[in-house]
Amino acid sequence: VQLVESGGGLVQTGGSLTLSCTASGFTHDDYAIGWFRQAPGKEREGVSHISPRDETTFYADSVKGRFTITSDNANNLVFLQTGSLNPEDTAIYYCVGTRRGCVQLSSNRLNPQNEDYWGQGTQVTVSS
Questions:
Q1: Residues 104, 28: Cα–Cα separation, whole Å
Q2: What is the CB neighbour count within 10 angstroms for residue 100?
Q3: How far is CA 45 from the centre of its chain?
């Protein structure tokens, strides 16, 4: 399994970015792909997940209504469209993959311990 992120960068408050993750090598039926983020001095936060099989999605309360996750199964891509960004969204964003998609997508909060694969991360910086 390989996860490769792209699309991070510097953006002003109120702006948007689209993060991409190329996710290859998954063979398990119940897998899900998503994003965690970690800001300096803070714990990792689960942001969003999607099941490529049935497109079930999960969003953390902190990003609901501002972020949208989608998948392009033909090209093994998962996108995170971010909007109305503010400085509190500044973090390293990691693409993640889990073989326990049903567990993560049915939870109230994404548990990093349930993730099996992590990308190297891409920096998102929101300036005020």
A1: 15
A2: 17
A3: 10
Residue 23: what are its φ and ψ, rounded to 5°?
-120, 115
C-beta of residue 37 within 8 angstroms of C-beta of residue 94: yes
Alpha helices by DSSP H, listed for 18-116, are 101-105
Query: Whole-angstrom Cα distance, residue 38 to residue 90?
Result: 8
Tokens at 104, concatenated? 């993560």
Q: Which of 64, 67, 4 is nearest to 33 (CA)?
A: 4
- Digit-coded pLDDT (tens) for 19-74: 999 998 887 778 999 999 999 999 999 999 999 989 999 999 999 999 999 999 99
pLDDT at position 49: 97
Radius of gyration of the chain (CA): 13
Decide: 9 and 125 in contact? Cβ < 8 Å: yes
121-125: average pLDDT: 98
Residue 101 has pLDDT above 80, yes or no: yes
